[in-house]
Structures are given as C-alpha cells and as structure tokens.
TrEMBL record:
InterPro entries listed in its UniProt record: Endonuclease_7, Endonuclease_7_sf, His-Me_finger_sf
Pfam families: Endonuclease_7
Protein source organism: marine sediment metagenome
The protein's name in its UniProt record: Recombination endonuclease VII
Amino acid sequence: FNITIDEYDALSQRQGGVCAICRSKETMKNKYGLKRLAVDHNHLTGKIRGLLCGRCNQALGLFASDEEGVGRLLSAVEYMRRNNV
C-alpha cells in the first residue's frame, strides 16, 4: 500500500511488530525470506487500519470490506463458537 517506510516502521512499532489481529509475528515467506506484515486498509476509503500477518490478511480478504462482509465475518465467528471449534 502507498505509505513510506518511515510510516510503516512507526505503525509496526506501535503494534509491537506483530499482527493487529492475532498478535503474532509474520511467519509466511517469499523468495526473499520472511515477508513483512501486510498493510491493511479500507478498500472504500483507503484509510489504513493496521498491519496484519499473511494468514490474517488472507482470512480477512475473504470477507468484503463493507458492512455486509463484516456481518458474514461475525456470523462465521458465531458459527465456530456454536460448534466448539
């Protein structure tokens, strides 16, 4: 996403260098080594929400960045809780 290295580093420092959702360090790799945390942003407004690990970013990406998508995400959480998973 379109932020400077300094902005990225400041955001990473505020989050303690971990994912804003699962609070884990990045574990996904690419051909250069360990990937950096992904810059998560609202696709409608462009507002940056935080940095996410690859797994959380992919999972969140499966749900749209709108109110309907948030509803589906909450329904998925409720489903998992009901089924003790």
